[in-house]
């Protein structure tokens, strides 16, 4: 593989995007193995107050562009990890099977020796570059986060499925792929918007169906641009501490997913986000035929003694920093995190501090599942 070098003068992000393609350009060419799975899930109506989030984080988005999911889904996936997501008219099958597609692709990456070999071959300067422009500093972690993002694209847009002609999960996933929606999200949503709205079962867009495709309405495009510009401005003037990563952008540069940047690989134009989306949808569609979903037993009530807990919607180092900051407000030392199992272990001075910490984490849009010691 030969990837064209980024011309002199391009930003660190452009150079990092080239490095990522150098590691991952052919890792998504082979179908991921799938096997029959039985999943038990719990469903309940959507609850929780999101008005503060809408007022502060989605202030630049008209309220009529925002759609909320109708059901909250909780389940344990085939890796034994707790999950929480939201669903609309297509039901629990979309978030559950999307999660299994994510696991199938991540397992495929974990088993591929080329990932480690190519990562080890990166120079110290290349490693430092990746660390400057990503929250997940290791290329494998970046790729896993990208697969998670593809799953969120499908799950969130499925809240809108009943407003389209596509009432089947496979058909809906296919039209999102064929319409370039995965790429559109990577290029137009600002960093953090997808994760924060996903955790609350919201999507700030409207879809238009025409000619066998779906696209964003003009109002949606304008709102996404306004929200992105506000986040970048918040980084520049220091008014938005959560947007500090945008401060490194060069003048006039817009934040985009690293996988969104086109590269030339062996003489062919290549976009990594498109390759990931294609394989994700193909894997999701095959899993629809082998995943069996059934009602799960009620959860055991928490006895209030646990110091270990799961955060099912925790996906990346940004989540780690957010949760660490939330519990630090109550004097809790930085917890230990496992992003793969979604498990967090912390030392709380008292049961009261523990509950206050959990409340603070939930206030930031995350789900807390206490575990027995």
Q: Termini, distance in Å?
A: 49 Å
Low-confidence stretches: 1-10
Helix/strand-derived class?
alpha+beta
Shape, per Cα inertia axes: globular
What is the overall number of helices?
A: 13
Gyration radius (Cα, Å) is 20 Å
Largest sheet: 4 strands, mixed
Count of DSSP E strands?
14
The average pLDDT is 86
* DSSP strand content: 15-25%
Write the H/E string, N to C.
Answer: HEHEEEHHHHHHHEEEHEEHEEHEEHE
- Main β-sheet, spatial strand arrangement: 4-3-1-10
Assign a percent range to the helix content: 40-55%
Structure overview:
The chain is an alpha+beta fold and 373 residues long. It has 13 helices and 14 strands. The chain has helices at 12-24, 51-56, 93-110, 113-120, 124-133, 139-157, 169-178, 181-188, 193-198, 218-237, 272-287, 317-328, 351-363; strands at residues 37-45, 67-68, 71-76, 82-87, 202-203, 207-210, 213-216, 263-265, 268-270, 291-295, 308-310, 336-338, 343-345, 369-371. Strands 4-3-1-10 form a 4-stranded mixed beta sheet, with helices on one face. Strands 12-13-11-14 form a 4-stranded antiparallel beta sheet, with no helix packed on it. Strand 3 (71-76) and strand 4 (82-87) form a beta hairpin. Helix 1 (12-24) crosses helix 5 and helix 7 (169-178) runs antiparallel to helix 11 (272-287). The longest helix is centred in the middle third of the chain and has 20 residues, at 218-237. Residues 1-10 have low confidence and may be disordered.
